[in-house]
Fold these 4 entries.
Entry 1:
Amino acid sequence: MSILDASLARLDGTPGTLRDLTGGRGALLVNVASKCGLTPQYAQLEALHEEYADRGFTVVGLPCNQFMGQEPGSADEIAEFCSATYGVTFPMSEKIEVNGDGRHPVLAELVELSDEKGHAGDVQWNFEKFLLDAQGRPVARFSPTTEPDDPALVAAVESVIGNTP
């Protein structure tokens, strides 16, 4: 079974799978939070989503409240904040756990991948990024402080788009 088939509801509670959120396209999965010092990355994530959406790519936000309670809001509050503050149009999942016993199954596979600094294992902080190809295979992992417009991240996205059937 592909991680794309893992059950993952949308932020509004609509049941579905990761495949439903990615649309079967290459995707950058990002654990997001509204009250983090890295929250301004939402603007660059939206720009990345807009730039590559027509070429078979999407960003998917995975809200998580495991890091110092920096995503305390309800689904409606998260959606309103993201839309009103950063104009976010990319899909968002329900709030999930990325570490520990409650770690979502999607993340269980992704955390085995090493980031550009050699870190594998638990998600370190909000805004850690995982790049998947259209088949749901993990391709790259980027640390929370890697900006969405970082040349290495953009090159990785372009390589995924280039490999989309």
Note: Residues 41-52 form the longest helix (12 residues).
Entry 2:
Amino acid sequence: MLRPLERSDARDWVRVRTENEAWLTPWEPSAPLPWGDRHTPAAFRAMRRAASRRARVGMSLPFAVHHEGRLVGQVTVDNVVRGALRSGHLGYWIDSAVAGRGVASLAVALVCDHAFGPVGLHRLQADIRPENRASRRLVERLGFRQEALFRSYLDIDGGWRDHLGYALLAEDVPGGALARWERRAPL
């Protein structure tokens, strides 16, 4: 299930992010504060407020990912641009306990369909470290195409890291990303 982040998610968000520090750190932005200090109820409230503000003005589409009744990740389309571009940047993370079970790819597919449908975007971009094979495989299976290599693109895990730029256009998935996910889902 996808839904907006709620105040009541704070405890679960802190727990999942704390338990997944080693799993998430290689892909997360560098920060001056230690992981534990960035993953407190107060940090969650600040992140949620900022995400809600951006969502209210149409600059972001933040979603909590729930599986079997518990918070297991987030998917966000951020830096939404309207006008002639109608584009956004896709980001996501998932609890290692459910990784490899299709939860993240299903959540991303649903968000893509929402972004291309009711939101009216035309292009989604996902920038992924070359070493992140699982994330690359996720977007490729949904139809994203690699378009670029961004050298020293983002400050991730303590250094400037290269990223591969992937993009999905609305016309790349005429039946929707969910339909593509369903065709590719393991039996």
Note: The chain has seven helices and seven strands.
Entry 3:
Amino acid sequence: MSRKSMVRPGGRSARVQASVHSAVRELEAEVGRPALTVPLVAARAGVTPSTIYRRWGDLQELLSDVAVERLRPEAPPEDHGSLSADLRNWAEQFLDEMASPGGRAYIRDALLGDPDGDNAGRCSAYAAEQIGIILGRATERDEDTPDAETVIDRVVAPIMYRILFRPDGLAAAYAHRLVGEALERRGTAG
């Protein structure tokens, strides 16, 4: 069982998490990631190192937890008036954010400190939620829409693969092409 799944939401637990996450972000900016240690983070957060070890296990799991929170979208996707425009703009922004040096670092951290795969699932849920909003808007406009899994498989998955394993030459045109192909096939089986 992951240590994170045993954490109680709200109250003192939420305050400790917020304080520790804030300390990590501040220290990364001030001293750089390589200089981070659990005792340094604990001192900045006003907790004992044992609190961090008990809740997160080690520095990598803590960095992973912070990365997942940083990968959470801050707002719903913008409404551009059509499924195609909404999805193209979202995919372009997704690619831009995830392919940036910071985005790649967060992806790496999120996955490296994730012994049971919970963080990958949380990140996937963030993308699925954003896609669900886009598809819901399109449905309200009576547009023909693919299902969310199709968009994940045909847009998100290839973008993430390219970011992780073939990052050269990624541009908005790639995201737009993937969206176009996903929408062209929405009426066909398979």
Note: The domain at 72-184 is CATH 1.10.357.10 (Tetracycline Repressor; domain 2).
Entry 4:
Amino acid sequence: MPSDSPAGTAALSIARFEKALHDRSAFSCGFTPIDNFLKSSLSDQIKGGLVTAWVATSGDDPAVLGFYTLSAMAVRACDGLTKWRRSGVPDIPVIYVRAVAVRKDMQGRGLGTALLLDAMKRSLVITEQLGAAAIALDVLEDQHFEQRWKFYIDLGFRPLGDPDNPRRVFIPMADVRATLG
């Protein structure tokens, strides 16, 4: 799926990950567990039906500039919106962004925002076929946590209120639909 190009990239495209087409070898976002996930675990998780993945590349260069993954998840109704608590069901289906990362040399140039907007647009399409009340993700905790937290909050995410995971944030699909739909 072609996308608007962030500053400093030419012909950015975001497409479904294909192991044979996308070069992950030089990817480094600065967070080793995510780098290792992309290089070592992603293909197995895709084969196992645990995630789907999309990667950003530029022009004909197969090098991965950034990526995100989506999967299904349920959150406790008691942790989210008041209407979720009133729904009478214990769990609320959400689309889970398991990973989103941008190569270090591309950080701060709009690619992370482009990837998340693509994930949100894709999630809207998914919800036409499958019920999902929100998009959720966990903000990684390291020395850049506060910067990441602000990034997601600025995009409209808010704390879920999960006492077991205070780093989990969400954005209701109604908000995504109102903004992008």
Note: The longest helix spans residues 32-47.
